[in-house]
C-alpha cells in the first residue's frame, strides 16, 4: 500500500506516493508443538495485571515515566504527534553518493509522483541527482518514527533508503595490526583480478533449496546427506593464494 507524502527541498515540494521497494521471499519456519502433534503455536496478548487476553482493537502504545506510571497513547494521540516529517520527506542537503557508508542502509522504498502536476519536478530532481552523482540526506517518518533517509535515483525512479542514525552504528573495534607483506598483497590483488565480475541475478538461494530438501527428507523418513564441512584457514597462505590463482585461470579458460 502506498503512502502519500511530499519530497521537500528548498522551496520545491513534490507530492509522491511511497511504497516498499523490496520483499522478503524467505521460507517461514513456524513455531509448533514438538512431537507427533505439530500444532501451530500462537502468541496471545495478555495483560500482566488482570491476566485477560486483549483483542487487537484494545491494544495501544504506552510510555513509562520516571515515577513508574504509564502514559497510554492510542492511534488518535499518535496521529497528533507534532512532527513535520509525518507526511513530508524533508531534504536537509545533498552529498556525493560514495560518502554514504553502506552499513547505514536499512529498508528501501520507491517514491513515485503522486499526480500529473508532480511529474515534471519529480523528473527534474531524479535527473539532476543522477547527473551530479549526488544523494539527498533527509528526515522522514515513513514508518511510525522519524528516521534519517537517503534519496537516490535508481532506474529513473527516486528511491528512499531509511538509514541508521550515526549513534546507532557500532564501531568494529581494533583491526588486526600484523603487516601484510608485498608478496601477499601482490598475490591477493592478482586473485581479486581473476575473480572479479559476478551477476547477482544468477546467484541462487541455496538456503531455500536446502530447506526444501530437508522437509522432503523428514516427511519421507529418510536421512539427508550431510553438508560439506567448512574449509579450515590455510596453514600456508602463500600456497593457498597461488593455488587459487591457478584454479581461477583454469576456470577462465574453460567454456561456460
Automatic annotation (TrEMBL):
<keyword id="KW-0238">DNA-binding</keyword>
<dbReference type="InterPro" id="IPR009187">
    <property type="entry name" value="Prok_Ku"/>
</dbReference>
<feature type="domain" description="Ku">
    <location>
        <begin position="51"/>
        <end position="181"/>
    </location>
</feature>
<dbReference type="GO" id="GO:0003690">
    <property type="term" value="F:double-stranded DNA binding"/>
</dbReference>
<dbReference type="GO" id="GO:0006303">
    <property type="term" value="P:double-strand break repair via nonhomologous end joining"/>
</dbReference>
<keyword id="KW-0233">DNA recombination</keyword>
<dbReference type="InterPro" id="IPR006164">
    <property type="entry name" value="DNA_bd_Ku70/Ku80"/>
</dbReference>
<dbReference type="GO" id="GO:0006310">
    <property type="term" value="P:DNA recombination"/>
</dbReference>
<dbReference type="InterPro" id="IPR016194">
    <property type="entry name" value="SPOC-like_C_dom_sf"/>
</dbReference>
<dbReference type="Pfam" id="PF02735">
    <property type="entry name" value="Ku"/>
</dbReference>
<protein>
    <submittedName>
        <fullName>Ku protein</fullName>
    </submittedName>
</protein>
Amino acid at each position: 500500500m502506498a503512502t502519500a507524502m511530499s519530497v521537500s527541498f528548498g522551496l520545491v515540494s513534490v507530492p509522491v506516493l511511497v511504497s516498499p521497494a523490496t520483499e522478503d521471499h524467505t521460507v517461514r519456519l513456524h513455531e509448533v508443538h514438538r512431537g507427533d502433534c505439530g500444532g501451530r503455536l500462537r502468541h496471545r496478548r495478555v495483560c500482566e495485571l488482570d491476566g485477560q487476553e486483549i483483542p487487537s482493537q484494545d491494544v495501544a502504545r504506552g510510555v513509562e515515566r520516571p515515577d513508574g506510571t504509564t502514559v497510554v497513547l492510542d492511534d488518535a494521540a499518535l496521529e497528533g504527534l507534532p512532527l513535520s516529517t509525518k507526511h513530508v520527506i524533508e531534504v536537509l542537503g545533498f552529498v556525493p553518493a560514495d560518502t554514504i557508508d553502506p552499513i547505514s542502509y536499512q529498508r528501501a522504498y520507491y517514491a513515485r509522483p503522486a499526480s500529473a502536476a508532480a511529474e515534471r519536478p519529480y523528473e527534474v530532481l531524479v535527473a539532476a541527482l543522477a547527473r551530479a552523482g549526488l544523494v539527498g540526506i533527509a528526515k522522514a517518518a515513513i514508518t511510525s518514527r522519524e528516521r534519517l533517509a537517503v534519496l537516490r535515483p535508481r532506474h529513473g525512479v527516486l528511491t528512499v533508503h531509511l538509514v541508521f542514525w550515526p549513534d546507532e552504528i557500532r564501531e568494529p573495534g581494533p583491526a588486526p595490526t600484523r603487516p601484510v607483506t608485498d608478496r601477499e598483497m601482490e598475490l591477493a590483488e592478482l586473485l581479486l583480478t581473476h575473480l572479479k565480475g559476478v551477476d547477482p541475478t544468477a546467484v541462487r538461494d541455496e538456503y531455500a533449496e536446502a530447506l526444501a530438501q530437508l522437509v522432503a527428507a523428514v516427511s519421507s523418513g529418510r536421512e539427508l546427506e550431510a553438508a560439506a564441512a567448512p574449509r579450515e584457514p590455510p596453514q600456508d597462505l602463500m600456497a593457498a593464494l597461488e593455488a587459487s590463482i591457478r584454479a581461477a585461470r583454469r576456470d577462465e579458460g574453460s567454456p561456460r
